[in-house]
Amino acid sequence: MKAVHFGAGNIGRGFIGLLLHEAGYEVVFADVNADLIDAITAADSYDVHEVGAGGRTKTVTGFRAVNSAADEAALIEEIATADVVTTAVGPNVLRFVAPVIAKGLLARSSGSPRLAVMACENAISATDTLAAEIRSSAGDSAVTVDERAVFANTAVDRIVPGQDPAAGIDVTVETFCEWVIESTPFGGATPVIPGATFVDALGPYIERKLFTVNTGHATAAYAGFAAGHQRIAEAFADPEVRDLVERVLRETSALLVAKHELDPAEQDAYREKILARFANDALPDTVVRVGRQPLRKLSRDERFIGPASQLAERGMLTDDLVEAIGVALRFDAPEDPESVELQQLLADLAPAAFVERVTGLPPEHPLTPHLVEVVASR
After folding, report:
1. 5 among annotated binding-site residues
2. Does 7 carry a binding-site annotation?
3. Which pLDDT tens digit goes with each residue over 337-354?
4. Is the dihedral of CA 292, 293, 296, 299 positive or negative?
């Protein structure tokens, strides 16, 4: 079995690539970073160091790497003969990898089994987004693409911090990981990935993860940055930061229970498990790394506006999420281009215009007045 994975970075090697390796796949990493591809090509193995309670080191072997910018023909051939294609490139990059996936699908033998295509991104329905881009790239051959591929959405969860440059291609990760894949598109013939969980309805899992893990992690980053902390674990040890994170996640939990009819006790237990992960002092994650790309994180369907808007539409409380959004507006990290753009937009736009442009909410939305107020009073 062979899997082609787009994104040979830390998440690709330390999470998806690891689980594919453990499932028995030969993993072909595809990336545009020439130095990284050369380093992977030169190595026979790499180690994934799990840190925290029960942590251990796992060794990955049997992989190859392709420079997707310099050797498209080789990548097309790999896709044409693969069983699985996955991505961990970031939601905004999916449109750039779609064309070569389309070419690989069109190059597959008509008698080959359908290729399982799964985008493993921190975004809702990322595979749907990727599939639409692939169909668009295929043009008149879009029908053939659907005949040769199965597109399945996923929910992924593993904290992979910034790495020590001296580590080479080894990766340090937390012990916890979760890869949930919708099973319905496969019609009962799901890929062999023992480390993944296949479910009929993925929506609750995606929102549970995004509105608990990602919302909480980002809140800790922005509140920690505002308080002058450097690392996430350090920030989370601050009682005021932790209090805000806990209040925010109580609001998102209320939404998840109401919307998806989750068991309240099970959601409470899940939330407490997530809070314990943020406190893992063995993870050298920084508030700047976790807080980067604030404009994306403040967009319509993301970790703050997504749950806050749905709560407002239901007439439920949003005070703590709105407070966290206000803290996020103070994220001023010159090394992050989106942070720089955020601060420029705050300086250039009136509060109402800023809210509509950044969050995508119309003026008549019930959450909008609260956001306009927090922008105006920042």
Report:
1. yes
2. yes
3. 999 999 999 999 999 999
4. positive
